[in-house]
# Entry
Amino acid sequence: MKLKLFSQQLGEVLQKHHLKVVTAESCTGGWVATAITDIKGSSHWFERGFVTYSNEAKQEMLGVSSETLACLGAVSEATVKEMAKGALLHSRAGISVAVSGIAGPTGGSPGKPVGTVWFAWALKAGGEWTARECFSGDREAIRKKSVERALQGLLNILESPT
# Structure
């Protein structure tokens, strides 16, 4: 229910600002785009989505640098910032959200445990924001919380006073 509510609110706010959104997703595998497009009329505010699960896809589709991936990894602030900027560059949207994380149950490390998820949001008109979360739960719970956080971040940016 939370996802539907966030998505409906997001659609209203995007229309109010005459903006479209683009998503760049890794660990959520397109779930943010799905949450948005589950809402009737979403073609008015959803421009496109990129599911870039592999590092190669991040590079080829979004322009994430090989140096960033080699030095900092796919789950890093620098990577999601490049994903968010690349999504804007390769779309006609005015705002983007990027997500990359470790949903588990394997793949974690002491520095990046399972549940670590990085987010970035960017406006074509200028401005970027990032956040790191450490979610608990199983794979589905981590991914669902990630989708909720991605949508909430978009709402926070668009509803903040200018």
In short: The radius of gyration is 15 Å.
